[in-house]
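Handoff note, outgoing to incoming analyst
You'll be picking up this chain. Sequence as last confirmed:
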Amino acid sequence: MRVAVTLVAVLIAPVLVGGQSPPPSGHDERPRFDSASIKPNRSPDAGRNNRFSPGRFAYVNMPLENYVELAYGIPSLRTLGMPDWARREKFDITATHNPEYAAFSPQMREMLQRLLEDRFSLKLHRETREMPVYELVRPQVDAPLGPRLLPSSIECPPRNPADAALCGVRITTGLIQGKAVDWRMVVGQLPSQVGRTVIDKTGLQGRFEVTLEWTPDPSVMQSPEAVASATAAIAATPGDRIPIFTALQDQLGVRLQAARAPLELLVIDKLERPTPD
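Most recent structure output, in case you need it:
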């Protein structure tokens, strides 16, 4: 049995003047949600849902650290000072807004920033620091790809609706599999599995037929939910352990090497549980 993990889409937020957020007091031109409701979610269900329609924002059963990630475009691995409760406790946030603002648009992110600042008393700043990272590389530029990484000729989105399923990707704890997987999606799954930012230096682009299987490591997981998923996956698949470092090299023909690089970080200065609706 594998434990499913739902992906959350994140876009890169713009750097604000002076590296500070929010903009200077008294001159905040960012849009606001028309109305918003924040509810603690104490359900034991690990599933998350996001529902968007014109003029409506809704996320269900998501830790606060992921809302911060959505709002500011910095992965939680690169956020310092996040309190434990913000990684552990989950919230439902539903809001209405100008229907001209699309999901994941800059305006949507700005509205979410203001909501977090107003209701969670969020204060933060940005810094650039040299941090440990992993570089994803090929052993040689012209080295063959691994046996489970093949260039895909499938067109996505497909012209024939009957072929839509070919463009899907299955991502569960310890597995990435698909017929037409964007390489950027594969790389995007790695930081949460190795506990560091991953810088892609393979030169690979486009879509691939991918099957990557590994044994997750609970010790590098950031959230209690991820630790539980990794632990359950290990218990459900007894036998030899395949670290993701080994799987990448043997199955895809790429490898991770330790390095250091300057990274933009978010530093939490203040964060409180939300004010009541």
